[in-house]
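Hey team,

Filing this mostly as a record. A colleague (T.K.) asked me to run one chain through the structure pipeline before their review meeting, and I want the input and output archived in the tracker in case anyone asks later how it was produced. No errors, nothing strange. Just documentation.

Input sequence:
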Amino acid sequence: MSPWKIAFLCFLIAVYCLSAAAAADPPARVLPTEPERAEQIRSRGFWDVLEHEIPPLRHELGDRWPMIMWHGPGLEPLPPEKVKLLLDRGLTQHIRMDTTMIPTARALRQAGSRVIMMQGRAGNWPYSLVADSSRWALQFDEGYTYDMAGTGALGSWHGAIPLYTEGWAIMADQIRATLRAFRDAGVTVDGVWMDWEGDPYPFRPYFDQLQHCRVSRQLLPPEVLTDRTAWFDYCWRLYTRLHSAYLAAPALEIFPQAAVTNWHIVFSSHTDTVWYFVDNRAIPPVIPGNFTASNPVAYGNDQWFNSAWKEEYPFDRRHVDQFYMHNLIRQVSADTANRRRYSPHTRSFPWVARWCPIIDDPELEAADMSRSAYREALRHLWLRGIDGMQLFNARRPEYEEMWVQELQDAVAVYDEMLAHRELLDAGEVMNLEIPPVQHDGLFWSGLKMSDRALVRATNQGTVTARFTVQPWPGVGIELAVPADQGRTFLLERHDDGIRVVE
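Output structure:
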């Protein structure tokens, strides 16, 4: 063999080895922000970070829904210039359902923002609104204690007997009184997006608690106390039904045009099953009654990673991103399919986050989703029938930069979508296929109108992928996306076929 052939062969072997080594590199773990950077963010404050780290939109928000944040500017009334800083980035301040928030709501309204309520509550509220706990609390067998969510720590906290609704009726009256006060003050509430996730939401250890409750054994169907799937389905439907009756209905009595939803309210069916966001548990068929909006969850969370990752999956950046992409896309897609079928005028405002630690155990680490893949996921969510987003940008000690990145990514992608706002406002969803949990190929989403369509295609594979999209009957076009990239195509229908608008 000639020397140049030997040299060329050695070159090819070296390239192969380097490529294999790169592919084998595990994806990054979620690490704390550099201490200096974390301290810089803390010392600068929200408004300085917002103005200098979150670029304003290039395209007008107009009358579209602004996004709300978990950690934002607080609850005090804002001057118009600060509301404008938020709206210029497609964001707004949320308020609590409390009459003390009327001045804050009035300031938002006067500055041109929608008024959106959101607050978190959990535990045994609203059952506990009844002062006498004997009228709602689980009546445990003598000596019973329970494992706190499988951690080995024993607890004696009392959950609620799920069918005792006296506290719910009190809550409903409080909602009516509160919203009536806003209305009487001349303030319209546009959104009621609660984060109320207490009983009977099927959190562990509720299943074990119910089994050891003397009253629940008399009230609940036997299979709910003996079979975890039956328990989960029963509690999910009851959770949905109670909030429909005692939250959504009273809110709509006062503000009938409001978009009302609550934590994890979704439309599910046997045809298009919504899967739980932390594991592969099927949410039972359910139609959320009086709600005028759904609230699917799209979180890149560590519990999902630790419950669903399999040893046979290649542990590299590409396949970890595919893994998370599947989870972020699937709830919104199935919920949209069911809303279109059973309640086509119902809106949707999912919670979104790239990084959401749930497991409080340093031994159970999880790889993160890359920011580029997360931005791809957000693009697809906007093209799958949602109306807005709630950003779970939780601000955790030592991870301050993460909450900034959550804002940067969501605002940047919303800006991209606003370039096509007419399609975003009135377009028809074209595709809801969910990419598999490991998918070395292409998937796409899109919206169409009578003569235009917007398509986003993401190629998770290693070679250029081609696909044909047919927005209108009898006419299609072949499109191509390079390996490991995403492409947006604006299509127009003409007499001679479909053209890609450059």
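Quick notes for T.K.: The longest strand covers residues 485-494. The mean pLDDT is 92.
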